[in-house]
Predict the 3D structure of the following.
Amino acid sequence: MLDSEPGRGVPTRRRVLIGSCALGAVAAIAACGGEKPKAAPGGPGGGDQAAAPAPSQVLRPGDIPVGGGVILGDQDTVVTQPQPGQFRAFSATCTHLGCQVERVSDGTIKCPCHGSQYSVADGSVVHGPAPKPLPAKTVTLNNGALTIS
């Protein structure tokens, strides 16, 4: 039996149980903290992806490499330029299991979770397991700035 007399220094069953719960709660909170690591510009292995502009910056045509694109994670958007002066935008959420796409290179938008790849031209599936294309968004060029809606 763990119960002890007061003042003896031997923990009671209640104190051991409370201490264990507190320690478990601290560990759970610590495990939930932090941010996801951010990929370096160009993504792993280089490629066509440009560094995404900061949220306060204006997205300009020169920010999007021809044949490549940029991922605007805070807007759940990937913007591509399949041909010079031709801009496309899609949801950055993979249609397989909802992971965010990670990079744009070699003419495709790549998801890191299970290898799905999409065309920079139309968002169609180039390599599964994604079951359907990335949903398209509208890109307009006004006064030298790209706007996505």
Remarks:
- Residues 31-47 have pLDDT under 50 and may be disordered.
- The chain is about 15% helix and 25% strand.
